[in-house]
Structures are given as structure tokens and as C-alpha cells.
């Protein structure tokens, strides 16, 4: 059956033309990223400090010994993460790195499939090769594989969590999230979505798993307290290199502290309003609410706190995929200008216009994340004001025309029936979805 699918055929429809054109590009891009770029590696090596720390842990020696005055990658995983990842040092470094690249590539491919299923899309849809190509052509996937870090596994944990959360299998959803938090707290903001949906059992395993793993790792480590006394204070500091957060770029360009704080407060305000509107008017539109809220929360967690690196953007794939929903907040060009800023693998450093090129390269991620938050705020705010002006807030924020708009999923643009717009929460009637690399600032 597989070979029949691979049989060369002449496309008979526009959809087949696109699929036949996209699949070779997608597959060859995956192979290039995994077997060429990732194996070649780069001067930035996130894997070496993790491997060295795992080796020290397995041999009963201290692991938190990094010199934080240097700009080299450091080992920053907590004791629970150390316990989980330590087996990578059981074999020699090069083979271990290759296997870890393979593990992340497999995790990303599984996440790709789960992302399609989350939006009820199949591998036979046009979206399948388009999404696969977009993912592996992006900076976030490319550098995750090239630098060899764990973000691919975190993306898989996020997709498993979202699937289980929507199925209301709370304990298992929390376990998936808890395993990711045990290694890196990147996905911790997603707990707020579970809280907003009243799925409190998620917290039992989401907190219990990392706590249990920490308790198991503690007696096996020589220096577990150093994580809390040395690593956590370092993580809480805003550094002016390899950092695309507002604070990081503000320090790099010498902005006054009050201006950095003002930008952070204004962006936090847009996030708060967006989340309130999503909760008040969209929480019963489960897929839209969960994917959009997760995108807002995670983007805010990248751009507002002390550290945000470009390849964190991988966790936004579920949000970006929500563009297929008819009421998506991403169906406008400013949203995709923002996404270009933090997803593209392009480099904007210029030999001819060095100062301008450097600014474009270093600021595009920060501006992209910030613009995305502003776009969500503006779209939701405009819908709210229009609905209030027209006296239809009790029916939700979506305008009437949106009920008949295609949502781009399989069958939706082929005359399949579309659902009525989600009603607001006041309606009792049940309704029928790294940072751009740069040198540290001169001291």
C-alpha cells in the first residue's frame, strides 16, 4: 500500500499538484537538517555541557561547576532533569550526540503528526507536507537539531499535553507536562490553561512528577543544593548576550531601566487583556481557546522575563497552526510579519550596512514576539468593540460572517457543513476551535 502511494502519477486537481510539489521539498529538508546540518554541528554546542554533567553525575562527581562569567553554554538542568537525561553519557560522546539528534528529530516528527490530528487533519491533506516543510525549514527546528538540545522532546510533550487536556484525561496530561517541567520549566505557563478550564487534577501530576524525580535524584548527587544557590540566581539575571527578551535586548542597546520596564508593563497589559477576552468569550470553543491561549502565554514567557531565546519559538507551533480555524487571530498579514521575525532561518547581518544589519538580526525576534502579542490584542479588542457596538456580546465576539467562513481543515472548503459560531459565556444556550546569535555587549 505504501509503494502505491509513492507511484508517480499525474496530478488531476490543484490539491494534488500542491501535495506532489510539497512532499519532495519537505522530505529532503528533513533529511538535510537531520543528517547534514545537525551532524555537522556548529560553534554553539548545547550538548557538550549536558553530556559532561551527565558523565560527572554517573561517576558520582559534582555537576554544577560551570563558570557563569563565560558566554559559553552552561549546564542548567535541575536535579530532576539530571536524573532523566543522565543515561546519554553511558556511551561515547559522538555516538551519544547522534542518537540524541535522532531522538529529537523523531520527537518533532511525532509532534508534527499529533499537531495535524489536533486540528483533524490527515497525512493525506495538503497541510501535512506544508507543515512538515515549514517546521524543518524554521530556525527553531534547525538550530534545535544543530545545537543538539532537548526542545524537540519538549514540543512532543506539549502536543501530548494538549491532546490529553482536551480529552480531559487530566492526570495523564499533567504527567506529560510534569516530565517536561522536570527537565526545563519552559511549558510551565500552560498550567494556567488547565486552571482556567477547571482541570485541577492536572496539577497533581504536573507538580508531583518533578517533585518525585527531584527526591529520587537528590541523594544520588554530590551538589544538588548548588542548583538553587548558584544556577537559579544566574537564571534570574538578565544577560545582554544570546537573549532576545525585552530586558536582554534593552541591556545590549543600553536602554534606561525605566524604558525597559515600561515596555514590559505595556506588553504585559496586552497579554492580560487578551487572556481575559479569551477566557470570557472563547473558553467553550475548546480548540481555539487552548491553542490561542497557549500561544499568548508562551510568547509572553519568552519576551517578558529575564531570558528568551529564538529557538523557544518551537513551542508556538500549535498556536501558529490555529490559523486553519475560521476565527483564528492569525488571519492577517501583521501576524505573519511577526512570525517571520522569530521563525525564519534567514540572517540579516550585512557586510555593506553592518550597523543596520546587526540591528535587524538582533531585534527581529524581540519585535516578532512583541508584535504577535500586539496583533492578538488588537484582533480580540476589535472583535469585542464591534460586538459591543452591535449589541451582540451575549452571542460571543465572532461576527456573523464568520459562521460561513471556511476553516481550511479537510472537507471544510468542499461544502462540508460548518459549525455555528461559539456563543459567549453569558449565553445559556449550548452552541453547535535561540536568539539571534550575537557577541556580548562591550563592558
From TrEMBL:
Localization recorded for this chain is: Cell membrane
Q: Which residues cross the membrane?
A: 20-39, 75-91, 98-115, 121-138, 145-166, 172-195, 202-221, 258-279, 286-304, 333-350, 362-385
* Keyword Secreted recorded: no
Family (UniProt) = Belongs to the glycosyltransferase 87 family.
Protein's membrane topology: Multi-pass membrane protein
User: Where are the annotated segments for Disordered?
Assistant: 403-443
Which GO molecular function, any one, fits this protein according to its record? glycosyltransferase activity
Matching InterPro entries, A to Z? GT87
| Protein name as annotated | Glycosyltransferase family 87 protein
Query: Which Enzyme Commission number(s) are on file for it?
Result: 2.4.-.-
Q: Which UniProt keywords apply?
A: Cell membrane, Glycosyltransferase, Membrane, Transferase, Transmembrane, Transmembrane helix
Amino acid at each position: 500500500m505504501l509503494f502505491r502511494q509513492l507511484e508517480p502519477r499525474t496530478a488531476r486537481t490543484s490539491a494534488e499538484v500542491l501535495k506532489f510539489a510539497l512532499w519532495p521539498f519537505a522530505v529532503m529538508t528533513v533529511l538535510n537538517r537531520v543528517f547534514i546540518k545537525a551532524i555537522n554541528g556548529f560553534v554553539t554546542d548545547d550538548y557538550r555541557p549536558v553530556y559532561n554533567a551527565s558523565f560527572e553525575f554517573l561517576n558520582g562527581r559534582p555537576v554544577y561547576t560551570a563558570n557563569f562569567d563565560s558566554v559559553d553554554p552552561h549546564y542548567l538542568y535541575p536535579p530532576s532533569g539530571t536524573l532523566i537525561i543522565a543515561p546519554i553519557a553511558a556511551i561515547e560522546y559522538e555516538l551519544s550526540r547522534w542518537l540524541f539528534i535522532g531522538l529529537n528529530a523523531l520527537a518533532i516528527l511525532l509532534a508534527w503528526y499529533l499537531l495535524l490530528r489536533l486540528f483533524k487533519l490527515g497525512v493525506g491533506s495538503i497541510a501535512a507536507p506544508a507543515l512538515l516543510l515549514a517546521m524543518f525549514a524554521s530556525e527553531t527546528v534547525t538550530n534545535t537539531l544543530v545545537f543538539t538540545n532537548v526542545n524537540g522532546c519538549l514540543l512532543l510533550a506539549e502536543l501530548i499535553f494538549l491532546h490529553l487536556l482536551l480529552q480531559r484525561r487530566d492526570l495523564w496530561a499533567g504527567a506529560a507536562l510534569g516530565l517536561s517541567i522536570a527537565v526545563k520549566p519552559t511549558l510551565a505557563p500552560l498550567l494556567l490553561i488547565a486552571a482556567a478550564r477547571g482541570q485541577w487534577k492536572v496539577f497533581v501530576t504536573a507538580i508531583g512528577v518533578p517533585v518525585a524525580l527531584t527526591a529520587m535524584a537528590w541523594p544520588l548527587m554530590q551538589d544538588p543544593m548548588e542548583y538553587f544557590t548558584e544556577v537559579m540566581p544566574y537564571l534570574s539575571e538578565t544577560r545582554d548576550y544570546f537573549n532576545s527578551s525585552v530586558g536582554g535586548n534593552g541591556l545590549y542597546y543600553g536602554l534606561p531601566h525605566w524604558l525597559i520596564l515600561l515596555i514590559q508593563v505595556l506588553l504585559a497589559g496586552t497579554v492580560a487583556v487578551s487572556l481575559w477576552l479569551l477566557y470570557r468569550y472563547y473558553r467553550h470553543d475548546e480548540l481555539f481557546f487552548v491553542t490561542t491561549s497557549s500561544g499568548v502565554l508562551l510568547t509572553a514567557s519568552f519576551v517578558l522575563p529575564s531570558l528568551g531565546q529564538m529557538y523557544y519559538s518551537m513551542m508556538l507551533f500549535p498556536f501558529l497552526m490555529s490559523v486553519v480555524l475560521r476565527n483564528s487571530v492569525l488571519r492577517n498579514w501583521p501576524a505573519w510579519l511577526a512570525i517571520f521575525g522569530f521563525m525564519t532561518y534567514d540572517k540579516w547581518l550585512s557586510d555593506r550596512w553592518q550597523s543596520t544589519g546587526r540591528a535587524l538580526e538582533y531585534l527581529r525576534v524581540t519585535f516578532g514576539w512583541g508584535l504577535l502579542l500586539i496583533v492578538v490584542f488588537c484582533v480580540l479588542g476589535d472583535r469585542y468593540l464591534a460586538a459591543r457596538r452591535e449589541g451582540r456580546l451575549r452571542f460571543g465576539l465572532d461576527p456573523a460572517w464568520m459562521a460561513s467562513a471556511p476553516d481550511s481543515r479537510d472537507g471544510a472548503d468542499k461544502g462540508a457543513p460548518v459549525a455555528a459560531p461559539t456563543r459567549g459565556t453569558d449565553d445559556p444556550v449550548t452552541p453547535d476551535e535561540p536568539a539571534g546569535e550575537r557577541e556580548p555587549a562591550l563592558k
